[in-house]
Amino acid sequence: MAILLITGGTRSGKSRRAEARAHAFPGRPVYIATAEALDTEMEERITRHRARRGNAWIEREAPLDLVEALTETDGGGARLVDCLTLWLSNLLHAGRSWLDEAALLTAALGRQQSPVILVTNEVGLGIVPDNALARVFRDAAGILNQNIATVADEVEFVVAGLPMKVK
Fold first, then answer.
1. pLDDT for residue 54
2. Could you tell me the sign of the dihedral formed by the alpha carbons of 58, 74, 43, 126, in that order?
């Protein structure tokens, strides 16, 4: 069993790296998608991601109930969660306690039998946001990433498509 966290900036190559890592484990990989197609642009992104991955994946949508999706898919191939920052955004918009959900996720990761690869965005390298909601999101993402990195066996930071091992 392995817990891998892959982080980096927007369009850094995180998802491609995570997909390659998932395929390196035995069994058919499971793609756990946290995105919701709430507009045309997001629908197009999801379509492009699906086309790139092809049919080799089992797909599971989990915009909010990530722990449930991990529990139900455990025992097979590697699971790729793409991505934690969209999941966090979904939790905030749904009015759910991201701190409670993050604690549940951290605990659930310790119980997994099959590998889990988690993709997340590093949002703390830019300027301080000019509004309260954006600052709450940035801070929450940083804390969530730290919590997951603590329990991860490996952490990679991807820049320009190149992974750097952090842990």
1. 83
2. negative
Report the 10 Å Cβ neighbour count for 28: 13
Is there a contact between 10 and 40 (Cβ–Cβ < 8 Å)? no
Give the separation between CA 83 and CA 88, rounded to whole angstroms: 9
Q: Is the dihedral of CA 57, 62, 63, 66 positive or negative?
A: negative
pTM confidence score:
0.94
Give the angle 40-59-50 at the CA atoms, nearest 5°.
Answer: 45
Lookup: tokens for 125: 């390298």
Distance CA 60, CA 146 (A): 25
Active site residues: 49
133 within 8 A of 139, measured Cβ to Cβ: no
Give the single-character DSSP code of 13: S
Instruction: Give the number of residues written for the chain.
Output: 167
Secondary-structure percent of the chain, ordered helix, strand, coil, rounded to 5: 45, 20, 35
How far apart (Å, rounded) are the C-alpha atoms in residues 83 and 106?
15
How many Å apart are CA 34 and CA 83, to the nearest integer? Answer: 6
pLDDT band at 16 (very low <50, low <70, confident <90, very high): very high
**What is the strand order of the sheet 116-121 is part of?**
58-61, 30-33, 79-82, 116-121, 3-8, 154-159, 162-165
